[in-house]
Design goal:
- This protein is an alpha/beta fold.
- About 40% of the residues lie in helices and about 25% in strands.
- A five-stranded mixed β-sheet has the order 3-2-1-4-5.
- A hairpin with a 3-residue loop joins strand 1 and strand 2.
- Helix 1 crosses helix 2.
- The radius of gyration is 16 Å and the shape is elongated.
């Protein structure tokens, strides 16, 4: 039986719901990336360095999320901002693109809401 994944992601965390028949497993991955707040008096090179460090950490975060998806079937990616698009691009680079069936823009969701959406999506894939 194939496992369907409902994945809610932003730049701070990813909630991954694996649905296999009636079984549900939830995995949480934190990015540990701090977003810079507007600080005056910073020079451009320091900002560039901080941006490169942040980008490197985000890429590691996306790679950790992707490593959780290798044994999945259909993947629904959800989230409020740019993270879902960045993750989709990295998934395509890692040759999982055939598994992405849908990308949805949604606001913040509770874990039970993510589980319900993943179950609904799994039923549509059956």
């Amino acid at each position: 039986m194939k496992t369907t994944v409902g994945l809610w992601i932003d730049h701070r965390k990813a909630v991954i719901v694996f649905v296999t028949g009636a079984d549900v497993e939830i995995k949480l991955i934190n990015s540990n990336v701090e977003h810079p707040r507007g600080q005056s008096g910073r020079s451009a090179p320091a900002d560039d360095i901080q941006q490169r460090v942040s980008t490197k950490r985000l890429n590691s975060y996306y790679d950790e999320v992707i490593s959780s998806l290798w044994n999945s079937g259909a993947i629904l990616i959800m989230g409020p901002g740019e993270a879902k698009g960045a993750l989709k691009k990295r998934i395509e680079i890692n040759n999982l693109k055939g598994r992405i069936v849908d990308v949805e823009t949604v606001d913040k969701m509770t874990d039970p809401q993510i589980v319900a959406k993943a179950r609904e999506y799994s039923l549509k894939q059956s």
